[in-house]
Amino acid sequence: MTRVRVRQHVNPLSDQYRNPVSPPDWSQIYPDITQPLHLDIGCARGKFLLKMAALYPDINFLGTEIREPLVIEANQQRDQLGLTNLHFIFCNINHSIEPILQSFPQGILEWVTIQFPDPWFKQRHSKRRVVQSELVEAIARYLKDDGVVFLQSDVEFVQNEMVKHFQNNSHFTQQQLETNPFPVPTEREIATYNKNEPVYRSLFKKS
């Protein structure tokens, strides 16, 4: 398959990304809708989830991405691999997390990953960063008790900002973490290590 080319960044505050998504009937997507759910926010080309879904057939995986061509490409690759426990959806998660998660059975969301989100370096663009207090509160509402949130970035101030949002929410407790708890690295993670640069990681549990 030809690798689709897209802009590296899109402005999530643009009008075209403000409308909440209408979720599909998940029972038509996943053979077993009652399986635990892993939500990956900002999944890019979906390589992480494509490998995770193959390793863990008893978990349903959902990737969200704001660049629609990447979602189309990822779902095509999923179909080629015959993975029935995986789906990718095009949306701005900050406007769509509520309709997406409330359309699933209650209490099945066990894992949330937010990995290497767009840093939006300028302070005046801080509202474009994906992790905002409203997103954290929505995750807290739908994540099951003892569910976990894994954050990682190659930009230290972005990681610190994400961590602060979760620290400021009373539903979450930060956990000790030394290495990536998942067996599959993301493409950005691999590229960062190949440049001998650090990756910053944090893990939170819903208490």
Largest sheet: 7 strands, mixed
Number of strands: 7
Write the CATH homologous superfamily: Vaccinia Virus protein VP39
Number of domains: 1
Separate helix tally: 6
Low-confidence spans: pLDDT under 50, at least 5 residues? none
CATH class: Alpha Beta
Query: What's the architecture, going by CATH?
Result: 3-Layer(aba) Sandwich
Dominant shape? globular
Structure description:
The chain is of the alpha/beta class. 30% of the residues lie in helices and 22% in strands. It is built from 6 helices and 7 strands, in the order βαβαβαβαβαβαβ. It has a 7-stranded mixed beta sheet, sandwiched between helices. The longest helix is centred in the middle third of the chain and has 14 residues, at 68-81. The termini are far apart.
A few lines on this structure:
The protein has helices at residues 47-55, 68-81, 93-102, 133-142, 156-167, 187-194, and strands spanning 37-41, 60-65, 86-90, 109-115, 143-153, 172-175, 200-206.
Tag the structure with descriptive keywords.
207 residues; alpha/beta; Rossmann fold; seven-stranded mixed beta sheet; 6 helices
